[in-house]
């Protein structure tokens, strides 16, 4: 049906003004929604056949598809303070309603331009000051987000010493104090001045097919996200006040694989009809990162004792001959990280991160300790799924795993030796439990691996010494012989067996032998 309306001259003038106002209102619509790739020529080309067609009630454009947007409605007309541009072409095989997809080569340096997009007078508090940006490579699929920690740990195991994300510092411009946390393989951060030109070159070292479920060859790789979070300084000089976050979707291929994939997609699009091409986005030379929610901030607080051991030698002083430490060892402080009802929502977020529930921090953003502890087992399983739900429920209830073996040890002293000699002389029976009023303290040692190495480390930790100071561990056998402790012997220890520890100086070096009696 064609539109054929004859309007008077005055109406034509009004209509002309309305059209100009409509065109003006459309200018910059791509910038306001963070989709800088949309040009007005492209908009006119797509909207042209649709704008005056009575059969099309809704414009089929991704920028009008509200359910696809992850931003709150209040931000639709907001000019973003920063813009991040990844200098890599987008794929031409992406439909209009979908997010852009960019192919990267493994280990290749790609530039991301950090642009100051503020209006005059906007955010004056950061003028002349530095801001901090945190780069992350995370999973795009929700299924992999739930198991992100396990996926990254598996990658770390298969690629020891490698990182997922790195900064190419020699090629980067304007970045200050770049840092990469050794425990966070997929995160880097740096400071930069918005008033100066800043470009950071990043390298992604993992490929998308490393995280596929089945690997038969030729399978599709999983998509990642490059996310950038920018913060300003607070009153204490810490970069914790959030300014802006943006991200884009990527896939990483083996070297030169991204170029081949881009060429394949372009050839496929060339074979499509003009009508089919209208359903796909054109390929752009650069990728504009679109605004997103900030990544949950992780505060690294290490209140538990380090798994390493104190290497101080002064705490292990021996007397003449066969001696023992000159003081009763102090037991290590208990390692407890139980969630309390008085825990604040911010502390609850830190607890979730420390206990490997990072993927659920957004779901429990406003939950305090009391809120989490009120959840039933069924509630947690319904929210987090069966596997992580049971694990989170057990962590909330503070359920500890029973160790495989528990033994008790006591440090031998001169008083104990004299008492044993007196008991032998007086032929007192050990089963009578008569200790002549002397009180001896035993310490529990919990073993999980049931190995001689683990026992050595636990004894060294008990005495606050280095495991290197313990040369060998022996068990006193029949007729007083010394039997070398092995893994098999420990595996045959009785549960809650009691031992008295004695020490003997090694012949060759400054270390000592431990004897279990």
From TrEMBL:
GO biological process, one term: mRNA transcription by RNA polymerase II
CDD domains xrefs: SAM_TFCP2
Keywords: DNA-binding, Nucleus, Transcription, Transcription regulation
Keyword NADP: no
Domain Grh/CP2 DB: 76-315
UniProt-listed InterPro entries: CP2, GRHL1/CP2_C, SAM/pointed_sf, SAM_3, TF_CP2-like, TFCP2_SAM
Region (Disordered): 253-283, 309-340
Gene Ontology CC terms: cytosol; nucleoplasm; protein-containing complex
GO molecular function: DNA-binding transcription activator activity, RNA polymerase II-specific; RNA polymerase II cis-regulatory region sequence-specific DNA binding
Compartmental location: Nucleus
Residue stretches of biased makeup (Basic and acidic residues): 256-280
The family this protein is said to belong to: Belongs to the grh/CP2 family. CP2 subfamily.
Protein name listed in UniProt: Transcription factor CP2
Species the sequence originates in: Macaca fascicularis
């Amino acid at each position: 049906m064609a539109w054929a309306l004859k309007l008077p001259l005055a109406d034509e003038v009004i209509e002309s003004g309305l059209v100009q106002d409509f065109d003006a209102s459309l200018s910059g619509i791509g910038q306001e929604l963070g989709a800088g790739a949309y040009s007005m020529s492209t908009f006119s080309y797509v909207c042209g056949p649709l704008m005056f067609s009575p059969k099309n009630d809704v414009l089929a454009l991704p920028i009008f598809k509200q359910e696809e947007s992850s931003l709150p409605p209040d931000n639709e007309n907001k000019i973003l303070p920063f813009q991040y541009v990844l200098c890599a072409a987008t794929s031409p095989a992406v439909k209009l309603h979908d997010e852009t997809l960019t192919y990267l080569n493994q280990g290749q340096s790609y530039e991301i331009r950090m642009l100051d997009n503020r209006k005059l007078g906007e955010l004056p508090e950061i003028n002349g000051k530095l801001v901090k940006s945190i780069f992350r490579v995370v999973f795009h699929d929700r299924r992999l987000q739930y198991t992100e920690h396990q996926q990254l740990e598996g990658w770390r195991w298969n690629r020891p010493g490698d990182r997922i994300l790195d900064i190419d510092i020699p090629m980067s411009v304007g970045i200050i104090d770049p840092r990469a946390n050794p425990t966070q393989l997929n995160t880097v951060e740096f400071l930069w001045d918005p008033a100066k030109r800043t470009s950071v070159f990043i390298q992604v070292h993992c490929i998308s097919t490393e995280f596929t479920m089945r690997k038969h060859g030729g399978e599709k790789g999983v998509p990642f996200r490059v996310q950038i979070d920018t913060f300003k300084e607070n009153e204490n000089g810490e970069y914790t006040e959030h300014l802006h976050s943006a991200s884009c979707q990527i896939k990483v291929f083996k070297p030169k694989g991204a170029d081949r994939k881009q060429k394949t997609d372009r050839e496929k699009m060339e074979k499509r009809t003009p009508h089919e091409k209208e359903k796909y986005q054109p390929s752009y030379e650069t990728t504009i990162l679109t605004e997103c929610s900030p990544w949950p901030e992780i505060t690294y607080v290490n209140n538990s004792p380090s798994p390493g051991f104190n290497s101080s030698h002064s705490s292990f002083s021996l007397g003449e001959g066969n001696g023992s430490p000159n003081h009763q060892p102090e037991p290590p402080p208990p390692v407890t990280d139980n969630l309390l009802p008085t825990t604040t929502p911010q502390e609850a977020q830190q607890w979730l991160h420390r206990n490997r529930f990072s993927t659920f921090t957004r779901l429990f953003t406003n939950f305090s300790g009391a809120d989490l502890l009120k959840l039933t087992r069924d509630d947690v399983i319904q929210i987090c799924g069966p596997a992580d739900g049971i694990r989170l429920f057990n962590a909330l209830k503070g359920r500890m795993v029973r160790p495989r073996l528990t033994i008790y040890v006591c440090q031998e002293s001169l008083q104990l030796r004299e008492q044993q000699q007196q008991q032998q002389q007086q032929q007192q029976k050990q089963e009578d439990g008569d200790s002549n009023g002397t009180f001896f303290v035993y310490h529990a040692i919990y073993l999980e691996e049931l190995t001689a190495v683990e026992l050595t480390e636990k004894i060294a930790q008990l005495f606050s010494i280095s495991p290197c100071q313990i040369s060998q561990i022996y068990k006193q056998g029949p007729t007083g012989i010394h039997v070398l402790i092995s893994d098999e012997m420990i595996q045959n220890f009785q549960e809650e067996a009691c031992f008295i520890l004695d020490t003997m100086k090694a012949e060759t070096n400054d270390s000592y032998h431990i004897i279990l009696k």
